[in-house]
Amino acid sequence: MSGSSTSLDFPALAEAKNTADTAYQAAVNPAYITWAATVAQAASDFSLAQADADFAERTNNAVQLRSYVQTQADAERDFYVNYARKGKRMAGNGRRSL
Predict the structure, then answer these.
(1) For residue 97, what are the contacts with CB-CB under 8 A and spacing of at least 6?
(2) Which residues, other chains included, contact 86 with Cβ-Cβ below 8 Å and sequence gap of 6+?
(3) Residue 81 to residues 62, 78, 85: CA-CA distances in angstroms?
(4) Are 86 and 97 in contact (CB under 8 A)?
(5) pLDDT surpassing 60 at residue 93
(6) Is the dihedral of CA 23, 26, 28, 29 positive or negative?
(7) Which 8-state DSSP code applies to residue 4?
(8) Phi, psi for residue 39 in degrees, rounded to 5
């Protein structure tokens, strides 16, 4: 094989590979960093939005429950007040109510 003119220049190939790797990293790293930051921000925003929605729902449920309880208490009070008034009217007429 004494007449062969094809030989590989390993140092030149390694240098070309290193140059390509450096160029690739220079192009890809900023894009990855931007993507990673965007994903992290989106996860944070979603968590906050979910927590806000849960709080709003629970607060609304508590307000509705309090309103319901107060309405029931008002209705019960009105029932007993009306019942007592009716009893006084009946007793005043000399009649008894069952």
Answers:
(1) 86, 87, 90
(2) 97
(3) 28, 5, 6
(4) yes
(5) no
(6) positive
(7) -
(8) -65, -45
pTM of the full structure: 0.46
pLDDT at 32 over 60: yes
Whether 90 contacts 96, CB under 8 Å: yes
Amino acid letter, residue 11: P
Type of residue found at 24: Y
pLDDT tens digit sequence for 40-79: 999 999 999 999 999 999 999 999 999 999 999 998 988 8
Q: Which two tokens stand for residue 13?
A: 């190939």
- Determine the length of the chain: 98
pLDDT at 92: 58
Q: Which 3 state secondary structure label does DSSP give 3? A: coil
Q: Which two tokens stand for residue 32?
A: 């990855």
Structure tokens given for 65: 């429950």
The phi-psi region of residue 7 (left if phi > 0; otherwise alpha if psi is between -120 and 50; otherwise beta) is beta
